[in-house]
Design a protein that fits this description.
The complex is a heterodimer of chains A (about 290) and B (about 270). Chain A is built from twelve helices and two strands; from the N terminus they run αββααααααααααα. In chain A, α5 crosses α7 and α11 packs antiparallel against α12. The chains are: A mainly alpha (about 290), B mainly alpha (about 270).
């Protein structure tokens, strides 16, 4: 510690209170991430680790077509899901904030919150039950004699992964947008109306820019976890719908090549951070051009 | 005009959100091992089959131990972190709270593999302790988000009065602060408990010979003949989640009312 630093009693009390949770995060988050980084520069030599530093794992992760395909597919699926989710969540949040009567808001928030706390695994699994070869859709259509063979375009492919992930993350995107919309000062809208703006102009020039921070939050909340989703591709993706997380698991477990798994994990993390950074940067530029920031 | 379209959209939105969930109770009571319409009849067999599953009982026990420990540890850490950040100014505050909140912004698989790396390198054995550590890590940020409003609504003059009247810091916390933030604490415990009970990826990477409930469910999903039983189990879990969530919401509102403040905010 910097002994010379003058800390008043309050600062010392604050530091002593936060030290335990902070130490826990350092020990169980920062240190493991540092070890993961170190591991990614090592080589698996059957049962032992060769600790001579090498970038071979990263070269493999970024040039081998298998990993390239999985990485790009994860990025593509995650981006599509993010766009689908945010464009469905936005009008829902708009309804909750601007259209719904005040006494109905709490109920709507509660309805949107319930799926948060129901089992993620079960929610994903239900889509396998719906879309699978013997699932609700195919089973019912065949049982009714409408089709003879299962519809293969709905099962075990990227389409199924996109639908399932979109459904699973919808509620998570509504609330951040709603919370920001609730803070939009309603008198701005009245002023614009008095000055002759049409409802659409008011939306474009006031509501949309002011709700943008919520949209960005929702985008990140959906994008970051979906790119690393393990359960959905495994349950409903089939071979053509597998994503990078499935490969990371294979490397850590069955293939027994933890260093390559570490390199793949960090590459995915790098990808997530870069794209998230781009979102935030684009948002700043948009808000600047609107004169709101 | 646009209001009507939005209303219709909202109804469709809620229906889409809940439609898959409705399949759980429907097929949990359906007397057929094939999951498809039309339904064949009513049965309680699938629920009865759960009672006979020994592994299920063990996995439930493991999950309850992990969820209870994780929620208690995460809530205590979150109380310390929130009290420090809401009430005091100190150097490095932003960086420290940022590190503590970071797991909220990381894909879970990254947390899973980084902890797995530590376990592999340290030659430790995977056990329920490794899962508890991972769960405390991901629950703490949510607990902080919930406790923040409790601490913000706390009137500092009440604590000052207690200190001025000669109570020690510890007794002030125990007799003044804690009762006032208690509903927030209980709500934080419930949310952390629910997250831990439901968490799959980290548990999947870090579980050894004792699977948690989601890891057990995962192992059952491979067998088509087990699916109706899984649906029955899912129905029970759904009821449990809704009950816990309702309880936490009721407590949060009571706390808001007790502190005489508005009732906005909440989980997020």
């Amino acid at each position: 510690m910097r002994g010379r630093l003058q800390l008043d009693a309050d600062a010392r009390r604050g530091l002593s209170q936060i030290s335990l949770p902070f130490a826990f995060s350092i020990l169980l988050l920062a240190a493991p991430l540092a070890l993961l980084l170190a591991m990614s520069f090592w080589t698996q030599d059957f049962l032992t680790l060769d600790r001579t530093p090498t970038t071979a794992n990263f070269v493999e992760a970024w040039t081998n077509p298998i990993y390239q395909t999985l990485m790009l597919r994860s990025l593509k699926i995650s981006l599509i899901v993010t766009v689908v989710v945010v464009s469905l969540a936005y009008p829902a949040a708009y309804y909750m904030s601007f259209v719904a009567p005040d006494n109905r808001k709490a109920l709507l928030v509660f309805l949107i919150t319930i799926p948060f706390w129901t089992s993620y695994l079960m929610r994903i699994f239900l889509w396998k039950v719906i879309l699978g070869f013997n699932g609700v859709v195919n089973g019912s259509l065949m049982g009714l004699g409408i089709i003879d063979a299962p519809l293969d375009w709905i099962s075990y492919n990227q389409f199924a992964v996109i639908i399932t992930l979109s459904h699973a993350w919808l509620p998570f995107a509504v609330l951040p947008i709603f919370v920001v919309m609730e803070k939009v000062n309603r008198s701005y809208l009245e002023a614009a109306q008095d000055l002759g703006d049409t409802p659409f102009q008011r939306f474009l020039r006031i509501t949309l820019p002011l709700s943008m921070p919520g949209v960005i939050a929702a985008t990140l909340i959906v994008f970051i976890p979906t790119i690393g989703d393990y359960v959905t591709p495994k349950l409903v993706g089939g071979p053509s719908g597998l994503m990078i997380a499935n490969m990371i698991e294979v490397q850590f477990k069955n293939a027994n090549n933890a260093p390559l798994g570490a390199a793949l994990s960090l590459s995915a993390l790098f990808l997530v951070a870069s794209v998230a950074g781009i979102f935030v940067w684009l948002n700043r530029r948009y808000l600047k051009s609107e004169g709101a920031a | 005009m646009s209001k009507r379209i939005l209303t219709v959209f909202m109804i469709a939105f809620i229906l889409f959100l809940y439609a898959p969930t409705l399949l759980l109770p429907i097929f949990a009571f359906n007397d057929s091992s094939i999951i498809a319409f039309p339904l064949s009849g009513f049965t309680l067999d699938w629920f009865a089959s759960l009672g006979a599953a020994d592994e299920l009982r063990k996995a439930t026990g493991t999950s309850l131990i992990i969820a209870t420990s994780s929620s208690i540890i995460a809530t205590m850490l979150a109380m310390l972190a929130t009290s420090a950040t809401v009430r005091y100014r100190f150097p490095g505050k932003g960086a420290m709270i940022g590190t503590i909140m970071l797991p909220m912004f990381l894909p879970e698989i990254i947390i899973g593999v980084s902890l797995l790396t530590v376990v592999l390198l340290a030659g430790l054995k995977l056990s329920i302790y490794t899962i508890i550590m991972g769960h405390v890590l991901i629950c703490t940020p949510f607990c902080i988000a919930i406790l923040r409003s409790s601490f913000q609504q706390l009137d500092p003059s009440l604590e000052e009065a207690s200190l001025d009247l000669g109570e020690s810091r510890f007794d002030t916390f125990r007799r003044v602060t804690l009762p006032l933030i208690m509903p927030g604490v209980v709500s934080s415990l419930l949310i952390a408990f629910t997250i831990s009970l439901d968490e799959f990826v980290i548990a999947f990477f870090l579980s050894g010979t004792e699977p948690t409930l989601p890891v057990y469910i995962w192992s059952q999903l491979r067998f088509p003949q087990r699916i109706p039983s899984v649906m029955a189990l899912g129905t029970l879990l759904l009821l449990l989640s809704v009950a816990l969530l309702t309880l936490s919401e009721v407590l949060r509102r009571r706390s808001a009312r007790r502190l005489g403040k508005d009732m906005t905010g909440g989980v997020l």
